[in-house]
Write a structure and sequence with these properties.
single chain, alpha/beta, eight-stranded mixed sheet, five-stranded antiparallel sheet, 13 strands, 25% strand, binds D-malate
Length: 407
């Protein structure tokens, strides 16, 4: 159980009844004041606002135990007694400062809702603040899968009877890019590997290619007995998804293309890949991350969500130099997938951050226009890493699309 530091609240005269006691309705609002005070002293009052959600009270039970009077200073203790995926229960006890007499105890059940009032999984930051079971943190479902010539580290979360989604991360990232979608899309079996050369997956010195990553993923699906999956790839993950659609169309149930583009690198971009590889070799993977970061995140994300920049740095740091250089080479040498778009038969959603400068909304729009029946979702306020920067809007766009390809 997580406890917040106790806060002290003074009883005001207007909160008391004709007999001078703190009245029962005011006790509830006193508990509410104490909760906001605890937030202000801890993670900040904007905790919910900055995560785009609202804590909605669904049930409150109060046990009144003793009287309190104007001027009494009550010490309010707050503890999380239950934490689920979308809900949590707080127990608050108000005690008289001098002798610790319990005045009242409240159990309050909250549901995390989005701005439209729909229950949503607790965003990661809020989950961390509330403590308890670490259902939203990535990494708890990790296993290693030995395939031909490579071992992949994979986060697998089963939904018995549900269809499967294969999440393919971009560069220089790992499977935790999808932390919010892994927590949120619970009707689906979610499979999120670290590609070869990334995180805990094995990192050979060479042999990296987009087709190689794609073949690893097919072997991974085979090893998990998944015949067909929704492919969800971001940026480099999208390049890999194009290769999979081109060569293994019968394994693709549907396609989600995030912040990606079908075009190959031009000459200048290819030279840029070589420069980045040199930077990784000479100054390390962090230097590559710092070089890329400002271009990847929206300016508002950089200002308002420092934890997202930190998550990016953490992912980048988990990539060995050989894996990073290998990925840069694989992207440099990839072919152009523009010609493939018109032949895609799988239901497709194209997702792009409104502020994505690496694969801008215009590119996404043209790509969606070229894929028969594809839908486009523009995520306001997100840069190149929409699933991490605007997780609620991105997960909602995924859900709306997935309802059409229901498990
Ligand atoms: C990515 O996010 O995977 C990269 O930005 C892709 C690229 O550099 O082309």
């Amino acid at each position: 159980m997580t406890s917040f530091p106790p806060v002290e609240i003074t009883v005001y005269p207007f909160e008391c009844d004709a007999f001078g006691h703190l009245n029962h309705a005011a006790t509830l609002s006193l508990f509410e004041r104490a909760r906001w005070e605890a937030l202000a002293q801890g993670p900040g009052m904007s905790l919910f606002h900055r995560n785009g959600v609202v804590p909605a009270v669904r049930k409150a039970t109060v046990e009144y135990r003793a009287a309190a009077f104007p001027g009494d200073v009550l010490r309010v203790e707050t503890t999380i007694v239950h934490r689920g995926t979308t809900s949590w229960t707080l127990r608050q006890t108000a005690r008289k400062g001098e002798d610790g007499t319990a005045i009242a105890t409240a159990d309050i059940v909250f549901v995390c809702v989005d701005r439209a009032g729909r229950p949503v999984a607790l965003p990661e930051e809020i989950g961390r603040v509330l403590g308890g079971p670490a259902r939203v943190s990535a990494g708890t479902h990790l296993s290693r899968v030995a395939l031909e010539g490579v071992e992949l580290s994979v986060d697998v979360r089963n939904a018995p009877g549900g269809g499967a989604i294969l999440f393919i991360h971009g560069f220089p990232l790992d499977h935790t890019l999808w932390r919010h979608q892994l927590a949120g899309l619970q009707r689906w079996t979610r499979i999120a590997p670290d590609l070869r050369g990334v995180g805990e997956s094995s990192a050979s010195e060479d042999g990296y290619a987009i087709a190689r990553y794609a073949d690893d993923l097919i072997r991974l699906l085979d090893s998990l007995d998944v015949e067909r999956a929704v492919l969800c790839g971001l940026s480099m993950g999208g390049y890999i998804a194009f290769d999979l659609v081109g060569r293994y169309a019968d394994r693709v149930k549907a396609l989600i293309l995030c912040d990606t583009r079908p075009q190959a690198d031009n000459e200048a971009a290819r030279r840029g890949r070589d420069d980045m590889a040199e930077l990784a070799r000479t100054r390390g993977v962090d230097a590559v991350g710092e070089e890329m970061l400002p271009r990847l995140l929206a300016a508002a994300t950089m200002n308002d969500q420092p934890e997202v920049a930190q998550q990016f740095r953490d992912m980048c740091r988990r990539i060995p130099v050989a894996g990073m250089v290998g990925a840069l080479k694989a992207m440099r040498d990839r072919g152009d997938s523009s010609g493939l778009l018109g032949s895609i038969r799988a239901p497709t959603l194209v997702v792009v951050g409104s502020e994505d400068r690496a694969s801008p909304p215009d590119v996404a729009r043209q790509m969606a226009d070229a894929i028969p029946g594809a839908r486009l979702a523009v995520i306001p306020g997100a840069g190149h890493l929409a699933p991490l920067e605007q997780p609620l809007a991105t997960t909602r766009a995924f859900e709306d699309f997935l309802e059409q390809v229901a498990p």
